[in-house]
Design the sequence.
């Protein structure tokens, strides 16, 4: 699964010149883990998190600018990165969110919640999406039965050859919430 499939967009951002108290309002009221700090061209300069704000609470927060407390440089990822790679980065570095950048410009953000959400999708939702993917691939011939239990997808039916089995398995794995695939010939 790719980052582009789970990232949140549009992204709520702040500027380095913004007052920290305004960024804190965005963080707390929006329930965000962090706000990317961007320039006029939407290039990521850093990120301001709740932890950054807490560290700044020792002084007069009303005059502190985001640039004074933001974390920079910041780890960024591409929309084509694999979600498991992002999860590893988050765990390794203790990050709660990571900006997503394409061609140097902010296009989304991924939080821990975004990474986890596909793995707890209801089975009926996963099944519906798998059926649609297979129907689109198969030209509406309805050759396979799809069953989902606990994120494990079982596809039963007739497969032309091992190449088609591989294609079907790969297509099914593109659906968020699929943990594994079991193909069974009838």
Sequence:
């Amino acid at each position: 699964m790719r980052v582009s499939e789970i990232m949140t967009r549009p992204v709520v951002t702040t500027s380095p010149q913004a007052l920290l108290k305004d960024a804190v309002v965005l963080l707390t009221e929006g329930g965000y883990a962090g706000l990317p700090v961007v320039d006029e061209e939407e290039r990521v300069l850093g990120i301001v998190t709740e932890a950054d704000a807490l560290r700044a609470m020792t002084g007069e927060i009303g005059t502190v600018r985001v640039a004074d407390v933001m974390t920079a440089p910041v780890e960024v990822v591409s929309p084509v990165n694999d979600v498991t790679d992002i999860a590893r980065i988050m765990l390794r570095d203790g990050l709660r969110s990571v900006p997503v950048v394409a061609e140097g410009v902010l296009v989304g953000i991924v939080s821990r919640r975004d990474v986890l959400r596909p793995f707890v999708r209801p089975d009926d939702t996963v099944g519906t999406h798998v059926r649609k993917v297979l129907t689109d691939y198969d030209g509406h011939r309805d050759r396979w039965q799809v069953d989902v239990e606990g994120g494990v997808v079982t596809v039963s039916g007739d497969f032309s050859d091992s190449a088609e089995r591989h294609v079907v398995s790969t297509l099914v794995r593109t659906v968020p919430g699929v943990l594994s695939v079991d193909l069974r010939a009838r």
Observations:
- The chain has a mean pLDDT of 91.
